[in-house]
Amino acid sequence: MGVGSRQAFRSAFALLLLAGWLSAAPKLRLSTTAVGPISVAVGSSGPSQEVEAFNAGDGSLNLSVSSSVPWLAASVGPQRTCTTRAGVCLPVQIALQTASLARGMHTGVVTVRDPNAVDAPQTITVTVQVGGGVPDRVDLYVAPNGGADRVTFYTNSSVTAQVTTQSGGPWLLFSLDGAGTFRFPILYRIEGRHLSGMAEGSYEGAVLISNSSFAPDNKRVPVRLHVTSQPIAQVVPARLRFRLAQGAPKAVEFLWVANRGLGTLAVSSVTVSQPSGQNWLSVDSVSGLYRVTAEARGLTPGVYQGAVVVASNAANGPQTVPVELEVVASGPPWAYFGGVVNNATFAAGETLSQGDICAVFGEQFSFEEPQEGKQLPLVQQLGKARVLVNGQPAPLYYASYGQINFQIPYETPPGEALVRVERDGQVGNAVAIQVAERASRILRFAAGGWDYGIVVNQDGSFPIPAALAAQLGVPGRPAREGDALVIYAIGMGRTSPPASTGAAAPSAPLAWVAPQPKVVFGGDTPFATQVTTDPFFAGLTPGFVGLYQINVFVPPGAPKGDAVALRVERDGDVSNIVRIAIE
Fold it and tell me: What is the dihedral of CA 484, 486, 492, 498, to 10 degrees?
């Protein structure tokens, strides 16, 4: 047997071993990944909870569990018949040892592991509300222009409520804040509204809650509505949570402070609050946002609590944003279940394509500062990180502690594939993805309440409403009939001539997709106008890796409006819907 024959034999044998391993591997699934909020009386332990784990693959599961907080005690029970599905399950039993917890909301994480299972480990987030979910009192702030304000809370049973106000008319409302009363838990809303004729000042009311199965929730909740022409501050998001390994680089999240009242909001200070002797939390201002930084270096594993305090001239100031940092021991890379997604919709569970641009999310991918793959062809390692698709290194665009952007090799066969992250030779867990020959997705950005497409007019502007363009600070105007548009997309598969994995697309000859897609304007609802047309080019964008473009004229009769639906279709492959403006 010659050298070439032996090499071919070894490659074929390796593929057979991989196929056999894929078919024999167990695959972890959980009946739910979130428990609660569960109401617990102060000074008491909560009711035990149970999540069912089952095997969606071959072989057998061999589970172990751990908890991020001492008040959660998790164990795995003996195999039995499932209660949430057909077949057999392993119950993950969760004891809520909450007697020592202070009143308020507390969250912990149970991690379910199996070193030999695909899509493991996975986590179960457990939330308890000690003392119940119904607040003791509520203060609401509205502008004298018909504004509204609300608070929401969870209960573990349906309740009844009686609403009363002492003045100002029927400004106070109590209602479900979800899709019906059969969910567990149930989300309710207390809302105050400014009514015509209501002058500035404070208005008193109350909500009397009864018939809850959790006795502490049955109480009278005083409500005060503040009608003010002063600014009203709103900080987004309302809480922050970080999870970092020892030795990991700093993690960053951003806060945005908005004014939902009148006048001009002036933020006087943004500071952090953390226990004496701790210095893991900091905040600074960047381009009108507030950058919150958490650092795990020097900390032992555990959960750390802090806060960001925003002081301003707002009627409802200061605002406090709770911040939690969970520090874990350093270990191998961990790709999250469902954490491999395309770079257009970022939706978990969607089929990916050969040559697709994807992101994998998780933890401990890299302990270095974020790096970009700038040279062409793309490198297969950034810092000490690699992504393996069916054991083969993939080209990398970007690598950081919790995210790596990569290209699925064109050579990946359709069907199930396994993705792993490797850091400094340490290979992480396997997560399964579905790969197809094509899975077209139009790139998009969210603005004005819509998903607008990454689409360019022939003059280089974006086909979005002019007012929105001015708000975003970008060139933009609605498209018109006969205009040439360039639609940018990913996941359109192989081309002719074929593109090489990780390499920039050629400009001569152009790399066309075959067959060519159709471009559909409108038609997103049963009675909406729909016009379908052929592009004059669809293929890879020259000089880029994995980026496609569809060049098309806006056809006669295309629907008009600020948010016209747009999609591409080809042989049963239907893209996501994005919006453009057409006048």
Answer: 90
pLDDT at 152 over 50: yes
Indicate the pairing of strand 537-540 with strand 392-393.
unpaired
What phi and psi values does residue 468 have, to the nearest 5 degrees? Answer: -65, -40
* Rounded distance between C-alpha atoms, residue 107 and residue 128, angstroms: 6
Q: Using CA atoms, how far apart are residues 320 and 239, in angstroms rounded to an integer?
A: 9
Amino acid occupying residue 85 = R
Q: What band does 87 get if pLDDT is binned at 50, 70 and 90?
A: very high
Which tens digit of pLDDT belongs to each residue from 478-531? 999 999 999 999 999 999 999 999 999 999 999 999 999 999 999 998 888 999
DSSP 169-236: SS-EEEEE-SS-S-SSSEEEEEEEEPPTTPPSEEEEEEEEEE--SSGGG-SEEEEEEEE-SS--EEEE
Overall number of domains in the chain: 5
CA triplet 333, 68, 81: central angle to 5 degrees?
90
Is residue 309 located within the same domain as residue 281? yes
Q: Is the pLDDT confidence value at 13 over 80?
A: no
Q: Are residues 516 and 553 in the same domain?
A: yes
Q: Is the pLDDT of residue 549 over 80?
A: yes
Residue 247: give its domain's CATH number: 2.60.40.10
Q: What is the dihedral of CA 463, 465, 468, 469, to 10 degrees?
A: 40
Instruction: Give the SS3 label for residue 62.
Output: coil
Instruction: Give the residue from 328, 350, 385 where a domain finishes.
Output: 328
User: Which range of residues forms the domain containing residue 126?
Assistant: 28-130
Instruction: Please identify, among 328, 357, 391, the residue that sits at the C-terminal boundary of a domain.
Output: 328
**3-state secondary structure at position 478:** coil
Q: Is the distance from CB of 321 to CB of 296 less than 8 angstroms? A: no
H/E run at residue 365: none
How far is 191 from 403, CA to CA, in rounded Å?
Answer: 39
SS (H, E, C) 482-535: CCEEEEEEECCCCEECCCCCCCCCCECCECEECCCCEEEEECCCCCCCEEEECC
> Same structural domain for residues 241 and 222?
no
Task: Assess whether 569 and 467 both reside in one domain.
Answer: yes
Q: 330-387: per-residue pLDDT in tens?
A: 999 999 999 999 999 999 999 999 999 999 999 999 999 999 999 999 999 999 999 9
Q: For residues 161 and 208, give the distance between their C-alpha atoms in angstroms, rounded to a whole number.
A: 5
φ and ψ at residue 66, rounded to 5 degrees = -145, 165
- d(CA 50, CA 76) in angstroms, rounded, equals 10
Structure tokens at 378: 């793309």
| Residue 22 within a domain | no
Give yes or no for residue 8 having a pLDDT over 80.
no
Please report, in angstroms and rounded to a whole number, the separation of the first and last CA atoms in the chain.
Answer: 69
Tokens 């072989």 belong to 59
